C-alpha cells in the first residue's frame, strides 16, 4: 500500500510491512563475481578462479546445497544476512575502535569565549538529545524514504531505535552488541560526562521529571568543579577502551573483579550517551585537525583518554570550539547519527529562551563521580594502551579537502548521478597514483528491506578501468568523443551496480551468507572461499561512502586495511567535501597525493564535458539516479 508523506515510524509499523532481503540466484551472483574480479587479477589467476567457480556452481554441487540452505534460512528469519554481516564487519574485528572502525561527524566549529560558554552549548545540546530521544521512544520520528528513481519507498527505521540503547561489549574472540529492548522512560536515565579523563554520572531525570536546560547547565558546572579537585585524580581508564578488542576484553575481566570497578562499569554501560568535555588541543582548528581530534582525541597527552569508545554515541565539546559526534558503528549506519546531528545542530542554533530557573527541578542530587580501584597491573595496562593509541595518532594521515570548482547541481545538469561521477573520479585518482585498480567498497543502503543495513557497490568496474586508461594513456591519443563514450560506459556500469546493490542483488552479502552456511554445516571450506582471488577481493584498499548532509558538517573515518584509503564524501550544491585517510607507515599510500590526483581528475572530467559540450546523453542517465547515504 502507498505510504503518505508525514507518516511516522509508528504508523508505518501499523500499515506496512517491509519485504525481506532477497537471496539472489546463485549463477547470477557467481557471474557478477567473475566480472568484478577478472580485470583485477592476472590472466592465469583468473582462469584458476573461473574453474573453481564453475565447480562450485555445478548441478548437485556444493554451491547448490549452500544456496538451498540459505533460502531455508531466509524463510525462517526476518533478515538472513544481518547477523552474519554484523559479525563479519564488526564483532569479530579485533582492531581498536578509534580510527579503524568508529566514524566521526564533525560539527560546525563553535566560538566559545570561555569554559562557561562551552558548558552552555553542552547543556543546550543535551536538552536537544533528550527531545530527540523522546521522539524515538514514541516512535514519532518522520519516516525515512528512498531517494532517486526508487523515491517514495519507505525505509526500515530499526537502526534509529538503537541510537541511545546500545553498547558494544568487548570479548576475547568476538564482541557482543547489547541492545536494551525496553529502555526506561523515567527514573534511572542518565548520561556519562567525561572531563579531564574522569567520569561522572548525570541523572537527566529527577523526581520523575526530566531536567531542563538550566538544570543540566548547573550539573555540568558542578562536574567541572569536582573534576579539578586534586583529591580525586583517578587513572584514565577510558584509555583501555581505545585498545585492541581482545586486549580490552582481557583488561575488563581484570577490572570488574573489584566490586567498585564493576559498579562504575555498569553505570557507563547503561547510559544513554557520553558527553566528552575536552580541554583545548592547542592545534590549529582547520578542518583536517578537527577531523583528527574527533577520530582519536590527539592521544593520551591531549583528549584521547577522555572517551569511552564502546558507547555508540559520544558527543565531544572542546573549549576551543571543536565539537562533533564520535560513533561506535556496529548498531547503525552513518545516515542515522547524521540525521540526529542535523536535528541537534538546528536545535542548538535555534532561538532558545533564557535559562530561567522557573520550572527547574529542585534539590538536584550532585552528580556522582565514578570511582575506580587501580592496581599496579592495571596501571601497566593503561600505559600500554596509551602507547598503542599514540601509535595510531602518529600513523594516521587525514586530508579534509573542499573541492570548490563545482558541486552536485552542476553534475545533475549533465543528467547524471553525482554519486556515480564521484565514484568514477575516485577510480581515476587511484589509478593515477598506483597504475592499477583495486577492490573497492562503497556502502549501499538496503534499508528498503526488513532490518536492512548495507551491501557493497564494487566500483572498480571494467568500464571504469577502460575510462581511466583512456584519460591517462598519452599514447592512446583518443578523441574527446571516444573518452566521453568510455566515461558514460563507466557511469552506466556504476549506476547499474548501485541499483543491484540497493535492491538486494549485489554479490558481497550473498557470498558471505553462503560462506557462513558452510561453516554452520561444518563442511570442509569450499575452494571458492580459499581462492587467492576471493581473499584479495575482500581486501578493500579503497573504502568509500557518500554521507550527504544539509548542515555544515562532514564525516571522517580511517582506512579498513593497512595499505588502504578511507574516503568519505559529502556532495553539496556548489562544492564537494572529501575526507581522505591513510596510514603513514604504508609507502604505497598518501592522502595528500590522492587528494591532488582527485582534484585533477574532477577538473579533467569537467573540461572534457566543456570541450565536447558534454556530448549527447545516452538514455537512462537521469539526474535522479539512486543515491547512497552512507557508512
Topology:
Layout: H1 9-15, H2 26-37, H3 43-57, H4 62-76, H5 82-91, E1 104-106, H6 115-137, H7 158-161, E2 166-169, E3 176-179, E4 190-195, E5 198-203, E6 205-206, E7 209-210, H8 213-227, H9 245-255, H10 259-269, E8 274-278, H11 287-296, E9 313-318, E10 323-327, H12 335-349, E11 368-369, H13 376-395, E12 396-403, H14 408-413, H15 418-434, E13 440-445, E14 454-457, H16 462-472, H17 480-502, H18 508-520, H19 527-530, H20 532-537, E15 542-546, E16 554-556, E17 565-571, E18 576-583, H21 591-612
Parallel strand pairs: 4-8, 8-9, 13-15, 15-17
Antiparallel strand pairs: 1-10, 1-16, 2-3, 4-5, 5-11, 6-7, 9-10, 12-18, 13-14, 17-18
Helix pairs in contact: 2-3, 4-18, 6-8, 6-12, 15-16, 15-17, 15-21, 16-17, 17-21
